[in-house]
Amino acid sequence: MAVMMQGFYWDCAKEEDKLGEWWNFVAGEIPKLGKKGVGFDSIWLPPISKGADKGTMGYDPYDYFDLGDFEQKGQLKTSFGNRAELEKLIGIIHENGMGAIADMVINHNSGADAEEENPLDGEKRWTKFTPASGKFARNWDCFHPSRYEKVMMEGEQFAGFPHLCHRNPKVYGAMYDYARMIIEDLDFDGFRFDFVKGFGAWMIGLLAKYEYQKKNNPNFSPFVVGEYWSGPEDIGDWLDSVSKLTDSQIAAFDFPLRYKLKDVCDTPNYDLRNLTDGNSVSAARPFNAVTFTENHDMGGNEVVNDKMLGYSFILTQDGYPCVFWKDYYNFGLARPNSPNGIDALVSAHHKHAGGESCILHADPDLYISQRGGNEGQSGLIYVLNNLGNQWSGTTVQTKWPNTRFVPVAWDGKDEAHPDERSTDAEGKGEFPAPPRGYCVYAPVFE
């Protein structure tokens, strides 16, 4: 698989005194993150369009086609920069072997220029938009309730913002124009759809299936991941709905797994057998899961303790792992040139975390799994130890007889270097991990 970087956090440009300069700042980091650096395969960027107010994160879209070049809403640039700077950033992303993922906020709008009365229900709402870009001016009939869907409002409403009616051909067409601009003109490689509960799965299916004329790639199909913040059954139903409409691979963020990982990190004596119950997207649909330990929406529910336990899990197990910028940079979990950080786990992911996943052992305090390997990746043994005061491991049956294993990534409450391990003629071997820690062992084929 691959590894994604979430290239922002909430109020990142404000927090780092880079309002209007985030694209330029991220561009300077890409060579370190890309294929010739740490090895990230893609980066998810924040919303690119002009929001309703100066300094917003863009999740309050006002003018979809103003990428920071029109003086409106108290600003010229967006919080992150302008179009030329964004295009330069995407070029640098591609030069370094990475893909660029665009954040699509197509459920709701904000910052209307005037209030209107909706003749269908007599209610007044802020639905008159006259954007400076001159594109996608809209009125009450572009929102719910509209003449196109006045009885049933498709999807949930977000934060009281006007809720776009995608069944209006004007809205439907504008969303196509926006997606086409992102892929064809700006050269993005995929979409992350925000709050997909807010509109029909058919809309994502159609935007994913559209035949984009991607630069130098006539057979292009965008990567698509949706934010469906719910339990595994609801997410599974949504994935089924989208998959019926497209041949593209559609993924979902694995919120159920994330909450388990928060408990692993923050809850004393959490039973690690909960990681084996199958109640996650990655367990049921490993090729449709984007796994994560933290993201920008987790304010008030952040992982507080031992966060590397969560990262060790997502970077060795099934799914497409996503690393949070704030953890990597601001909280110092990258730990370059060390076996104890995210960089070492990304390396282990690329070199070893391939092939079939198999749980070899699980009890309340110890979890051991195996990746069987493939032509390009050797496979690995992953050990997660929940005990806070001692190294712990046990003998497990692996697929590799008479094989030497070396530790390639580890962390925990003991700084001692793990020893090499070996399996016997039957493939059995003992694999330990540090207290409140993990260890990734890779087979050595001699």
UniProtKB/TrEMBL annotation:
Active site residues per record: D194, E227
Calcium recorded as keyword: yes
Highest taxon listed in the record's lineage: Bacteria
Cofactor: Ca(2+)
Keyword Hydrolase applies: yes
Gene Ontology MF terms in the entry: calcium ion binding; hydrolase activity, hydrolyzing O-glycosyl compounds
Keywords attached to this entry: Calcium, Carbohydrate metabolism, Glycosidase, Hydrolase, Metal-binding
Sequence positions that bind Ca(2+) 3: D365
GO BP field: carbohydrate metabolic process
Region of interest called Disordered, as start-end residue ranges on this chain: 411-434
Annotated InterPro entries: A-amylase_thermo, Alpha-amylase_C_pro, GH, GH13_cat_dom, Glyco_hydro_b
PANTHER family for the chain: ALPHA-AMYLASE
Protein name: Glycosidase
Species the sequence originates in: Terriglobus roseus (strain DSM 18391 / NRRL B-41598 / KBS 63)
